[in-house]
Structure formats: structure tokens, C-alpha cells
Amino acid sequence: QKEVEQDPGPLSVPEGAIVSLNCTYSNSAFQYFMWYRQYSRKGPELLMYTYSSGNKEDGRFTAQVDKSSKYISLFIRDSQPSDSATYLCALFSGGYNKLIFGAGTRLAVHP
Amino acid sequence: DGGITQSPKYLFRKEGQNVTLSCEQNLNHDAMYWYRQDPGQGLRLIYYSQIVNDFQKGDIAEGYSVSREKKESFPLTVTSAQKNPTAFYLCASSIDRQGEQPQHFGDGTRLSIL
Predict the structure, then answer these.
(1) CA gap A47, B21 in Å, rounded
(2) SS3 A81
(3) For the segment B43-61, what is each residue's pLDDT rounded down to a tens digit?
(4) Chain A residues with CB-CB distance to B6 below 8 A
(5) Which terminal residue of chain A has fewer beta carbons within 10 Å of its beta carbon, N or C?
(6) What distance in Å separates residue A1's CA from the closest CA in chain B?
């Protein structure tokens, strides 16, 4: 079993839709949770960083962490064609001493 | 502008050849990392360095080598021992040596076999 599971998609939605991207993980020791956005032929850029259960909001983006279920989500409201990218979750635990990345979900927002 | 610069953007390797990928950062970050990204897979850690003149192997270090002679530079050499080098290589840095803080990435180097 992989340490972090992420549906690779592709996920195709119309402009304006609410998008839900998810990762599940197996090790309860993960303490820090990140979401990165990666455009084609570019490096990942940090979208959200959180270390506690609950919600964190930044503009159209909301990161949600449920440690009891070992489940993290990224919600995108009012999705735009410019949101079309691959979204990577990344988790950190002191035991691993490194970031563990999901495989990424490809999102396409069509006008 | 602070950031991470990777060069070249595209690189081609002949059989039996070693190639070096450059990574420079002006963020004054202590820690630097090299990842390999293949289609459908998450980023896999090759090497990382938490401080100048020190580095550790990641999960897939075989066939690769690094050096960290300066804080701002962390070059990666893909040696001829790496039999499947075709991939997208990403360099990252972090202000935090322990790895708790987010990493910031360059725009990658795409390496292909000739």
C-alpha cells in the first residue's frame, strides 16, 4: 500500500464549478500537509500549508484536514480555466524526515 | 527576485555520458533537494542537503551524485550508471533543515536519452 494515495484523474469540470481534490494516507504520524499546483513543464508551486485538523481558507482555495480519517482535501471555488494544472498533495512526518508526495491529480477547467 | 534557477531547461544525454544539472537559489535557504518526476508518479527524492558540505541519499540515489560546496548551489550529476535517466528533474529548497516547512521548487530540467 502506498503511503499517500491520490486519484490521478483527469478531472474535467466546467468553468465556475466547485472542485474537490483528495488524498488519503496510511500513517497517522503525518503532521504537516501541503498542496502544490504544477503547470505543464513547470515546477510545483505551493498553494496551501497546514498542520492541524480543520479548514484553512485562502481566496478561492480551502484546504481541509481530517486526521481521524487520514484524509485531506483541497476545494477550489469558482474554478477558472487558469486553474487547469496538476495538483499534488505532500505530507511530512518527523519519522520519515522528508516530504511524501501524492502522484498528482490532473484538472482541466473548460470555458 | 528571490527564487530557484535550474539549467538547462532541456538536456540530452548520450550513452555512457555523465551530465550535470545546475540548481542555484538566492533565498538563503539551508536545505536543498533533488527530485525525479516520472509520468503518473509522485516526486521521488534523489538526494538532499541540509547544510553546506553535507548531503544524504534519498530513495533513489543510485546512478546519481551531488555536491554542496556553496549554500546557494546544489548540482546534480546523472552518471552513466543510471540506466533509465529520462525524466523531469526538480530542485527545491527550504528554509528549514528538518523539512517541516514547505519546499520551493525551480522549473525543472527535462533530461532525455539521445
Answers:
(1) 27
(2) helix
(3) 999 999 999 999 999 999 9
(4) 43
(5) N
(6) 14
